[in-house]
Amino acid sequence: MEGLKVDYVYVWGMAFTSSLGFFLLGYAFAYFNSFETITFEQLKHFSDPVINNKDIFNSVMSGIIPGGAIFGSFMISFLVPYGRRFSLMILSLFYIVGCGITLYLNFYSLLIGRMIMGFCCGAYCTVSPLFIEEISPKQMPGTLGILNQFLAVTGVLFSTTLPFILPYPSEPDSYKTSLWRILFAFPSLFALLQFFLLLVVFRYDTPIFYQTKEDIDGYGNIMKRIYKDFDESNPSWVETASANLIQKKKPESTDDGKENEEPKFRELFTKKYRFPMFVGICLASFHQLAGINAVIFHSNQIFTDGKEGIDADKAGRIGTFFIGITGFLGTAFTLIISKLGKRTIMLWGSFLMLIILTFLGIISLYGYTTVQIIGSNLFVFLFNGSIGPCLWAYCAEILTANGMSLVALVNMVWTTLVGAFINLLVQALTNSGLFFLCAGFLLICTLFILFIVKETKGKSRDELKALYSS
User: How does it assemble (predicted)?
Assistant: First the structure.
């Protein structure tokens, strides 16, 4: 709004610090794929893997991250009322503890450490989008919300790049390396960076949090940092600056007239909140049912097809690396087109992914490996350029903190289920059949966005609150 000068450096710095949680999420979800064989062999030689079947062992270790995230996405709702900034600081410390526990070569330490990291990942899915939405001025519509996914794919990219320093699993005595500890500890540096920045540099919570707590001093302090010329002694400036926030939350009034800053979980399914919750849960489900895991799984198969030993290991790492690059570029593209509006981006992204996935379903019946690789990378680009980042930014605009928590929980449940049954689905349906199944979900997703989802671009908080009321 004219007359108010945004301190873009400070706002971007706050958003970046919050989004480091998604960097930690992206790294945690992806990095173990590069270590699973080496870790299993080390446990066999120097400890006890407990689970002697390597495939089951890998499934358990991979699944514990989204499993812990389910718990974290729910439990964080009890911490958020004490402050978004405070929640992020606690999560960064917990993440460091989780990383530290995994450095000890023991099955149970790996399991517990990764479960703690997963807990933090689920919690970050709630807190970080909420934090960014609540500090976003109208002069920066849409852009800051995409930053979460950008940092997430950056975390994935790091997790696919750093393993190149490791020996390949097929190499003799590869299980003797200790380099894996460096890569296991690596994300703790970013968790420590997040904690330090929140402790020393970004020492205030969001304006919305201070409003709900009726903390006038805290509100004035953070507004002076977001707006260079904010004057807390001038009532007109206060009113203007408040209206200039995308997310202005006033304490909700209950039926008995009492004010309540955050609706309880049971209230989310009452008439007032039911429709936006329905939209958020559906988008969170389509986010995982769209086929991103199926495409990545299929891509790894294509890269290693017909290769054995070290050649297969090299091809797998290179293929995974390029998938990471593609996801990174897709999210970077979304930052450029973010002004189009989240609904528009999700709609066109879903439609184009539907076309690509249908094409992959047909072409995988006949081979054409190079074409499949190009199509898979294009799909990953589109996913990370549309519903991938827009889910969290959009839901943060239309939902409360507890609503975000529930959406994150649903998303992580689907993540766990898809990850657990992807192999069985491929065996039962073949890759082609699985692509067609996911294309069916994408068709429903496209129609859902077209006819149900509403655009949030340029709307004030009061308009967002009324968006699904009719």
Answer: Homodimer.
